[in-house]
Structures are given as structure tokens and as C-alpha cells.
Automatic annotation (TrEMBL):
<dbReference type="InterPro" id="IPR011059">
    <property type="entry name" value="Metal-dep_hydrolase_composite"/>
</dbReference>
<keyword id="KW-0378">Hydrolase</keyword>
<dbReference type="InterPro" id="IPR032466">
    <property type="entry name" value="Metal_Hydrolase"/>
</dbReference>
<feature type="domain" description="Amidohydrolase-related">
    <location>
        <begin position="60"/>
        <end position="412"/>
    </location>
</feature>
<dbReference type="InterPro" id="IPR050287">
    <property type="entry name" value="MTA/SAH_deaminase"/>
</dbReference>
<dbReference type="Pfam" id="PF01979">
    <property type="entry name" value="Amidohydro_1"/>
</dbReference>
<dbReference type="InterPro" id="IPR006680">
    <property type="entry name" value="Amidohydro-rel"/>
</dbReference>
<protein>
    <submittedName>
        <fullName>Amidohydrolase family protein</fullName>
    </submittedName>
</protein>
Amino acid sequence: MNEFEAGRPLILRGGTVLPMEGREVLTSTDVLVTGDRITAVGPGLEAPEGAAEIDATGGIVMPGMIDTHRHMWQTAMRGYGADWTLTQYFVWYYLEYGKLFRPEDVHAGNTLAAIEALDAGVTTVVDWSHGLRTPDHADAAADALQGVPGRYVLAYGNIQQPPAEWTTAPEFRDFVRRRITGDDLLGFQIAFDVLGDPSFPEQPAFEVARDLGVSVTTHAGVWGATSDDGIRLMYEHGFMSPGAIYVHAASLSADSYHRIAATGGSISVSTESEQSAGQGYPPTWAVRSHGIPVSLSMDTSVWWSGDLFSAMRTTLGADRSREHLEAHAKGETVTHAALRADQVVDWATRGGAQAIGRDDLGTIAPGQKADLVLIKNDASPVSFPLLNPFGHVAFQAQRGDVHTVLVNGRVVKHEHRLVGIDLAVARAQVDRTIDYLKGEMGQEAWDKGMNPDIPTGEVLDNPYTYTDYRSDKTHRL
Ligand SMILES: [Zn+2]
């Protein structure tokens, strides 16, 4: 018998609960889950007849984390692009090899990404799925998301065609009619970028989104790709709607931030991505003063990790780093950090829920959907002392500390092990995809793609001659 069979109430006992209502922390608190909802939160709750219990003492109970921008299909290429720039990414996926991906390859990437998210306590992911060049690819993406017990938003995209073309194709409408049927675990958005052409060729795609009543998510403020022009065009044509998610928003002017703030959009910050790909500086330090809602995202596992602990950590680091740097340039010293640990935990949970329009996610309170994470690892020397729970989540915890995960009231991970998920099947799928891609590309192109040329440079002349240390002129910069 499954210890956590459907319908059996579940109680998380004695944890440190982060309800995500301001900086509130509830110690030695129980959380009761009945069906797909949280039904009670408090100390010493009476368990209903037959309830399963999970000992949360010494651990942190927080809402499931929400990633608002991840290209899940690319997880099949995990780590391949670790040394890429954005230019190399565009060449590889958009121009050269993205079109090799078959429906089963999209399925393989999505399945692995979906499982990986659950393992890391990410209970909702917006799948920024821009490899859907045929309806079969789209069906494969949706099949994969519905084959794993997490919560997903399929953000439908296709980098191989202009958005005005694929969004107005009958097959696209047909897909939406067939597959987007109100399943609480599968939301829907439309994903495309606005390139700044003054004739605004993206207008028909925005009209389709409006007609379907779905939100648009768009890579905005990406150095060399999308700019203030795209934002201005959206604004002037009346398509900056509440619910729009502006991904990165890293190289935009204050004027664009004003337009986003005024029209009810939010920004999805992918700090790990922005820090190494080159979209622009991770923008939280700038957008904080515009009052724009923020959520966090990981972008793609072709480069980076797929867990929001990294997102929280790097976002705090990038924001504070910039604040210090700006102050030093003026000869000043920052004595009090503006961005706090609880704020990034908020962005990783409640911020994500707000971005996707789900008020029933991202907080812990009676009536909310039971998407929950228990961070607890008694065997780890990092698990105590637990003095500052928000700081602990942001700077101390990692995916290996995710003890239990619930989605929609269902236990999908317990005692650090995934529940009811066959990793071997996912591995076999990904292996087939890698074999196929390697075969199509050839070994040389495969190796070259993974190992871009390293720029050369010279070590500076040094006026000091104390030792020969670092005198090697071919030193890699
Ligand atoms: Zn992206």
C-alpha cells in the first residue's frame, strides 16, 4: 500500500513554517493537507482519522517554488553549453541544430526537466517551450508535462517561424482546443519575442493571445536581441497587458520599466543566465525602485542548474554586488543591504504565483493549494542551527536537502527519494536523444559545439620583479 495514497489526509508535524506573508516565521507548527488543499496551519493540530504524518521537526516547510521561465526541452542537453555566450546559444539552437530536435527529443528533455524540478522542490515551472516547430512537437511537450506529477504552464513557442505565422495556423488553434482543457496542473501561455521592427509584425500573435485570453511571455531587454523598441511597440499598440511576463528585462531603460510597472506586467529574473550569457546585468537592483513584481527562473539546463536555491543565491549576490559597486563608484559605502533573504524567497514562491496569476499558490494558509516543500536533512551538518530560516533557504540549503515535496496534495518526493517516478525511463529517452543528435551532427561538430574557442590575451607587464611567479606570457586569461 502506498503510504500516501490519494485522499488520505496528511500532516506535516512540528516544522518551521514560512507562510510567505511578509517575514512571518511559525516555529513548531503543523500543516494539515486534505485532498489538494492546505486545510489547517497551527501548533498541535489534531490529526483527522487515518491521517499520514511526516515529521518536519528541525526542518523548514515552505511553499513549492515556482520557476517562471525554463526551456525544458533543452534539459536533454544538460551542461553541454556551460561555456557558451548568448551568441553561441543562438547559433546552436536557433540557426544550426534546434531544428534537428524531433518530438521524442522534446519529450525527453521535458520529462527530465519536469522530474528534476520536483526533486529540487520546484512544484511549478513555466515551460518556455520554443522548440515546437510542428503540432507533434507540441503534443510531445504536453504529453511529457502531463506524464510527471508536477504543475506546469506550457508557454508555447516556435523559434523556427515568425510568431504571426505559427500562432495563426489552424493547427495551433486545434492544439489549444485539444490539449488546454482546464487541467489545473497544465496552464498555458504564448511565448515569443518582439524584435523591434517598426512595422510590429508580432501584432497578429498578440491578437491571438488576446482572443484566447492567455498571457504572453517574452524575452525583453536582451542585449543584441530585444530592446526598449520592443517594449515601446507593445505599449503603443496596446499589448502590454497585466499577466505579461518580461523575461530578463536586463538591458532596458527606466522608461521601459515605467511602462512595465504601469501596465501590470512582471519580470522574470534568471540571474545565473544573465550573469554568464550576456543579456545584461541581472536587473533586480534597478527594478526594485520601479515597484515591478519579480519572479525567479533558471532559463535552461543546457548551461545552468535547474533549482531555485541557485536562483535565490545568485540573485542576492548580484543585487548586493551591484549596490556595492555603484556606491564605491561614488566613493560611498553601503552599510545596510537593501535586498534581504526573505525577499528572494518571496520571489521564488509568492512572486512566481503572482506572475502566473495563481493566488492559490505560493503561500501557506488554509484554502491554498497544497504545493509544499519540506527542507530537512538530519544527516547534514548544514541543517543546524536553524537561526534565520529565510537566510537558511537562500544561502544554506540545496536540492539535496529537499526531503519532501507535495504537488496538489500528492506526495511526489519523500525522505529524499522521488515517489512514483521512474528515472530509468527518463534516462533511456535522453540517451536515445543524445545518440541521435550526435549521429546527425557528427562527432567533430558535436565537440566543437561544446568547446567554443577561448579568446587569447596577454598577461600585463608587471613593473615588479620580486619573483618569476606568473611570468608565463601564455597564461590563459
Ligand atoms: Zn530564455
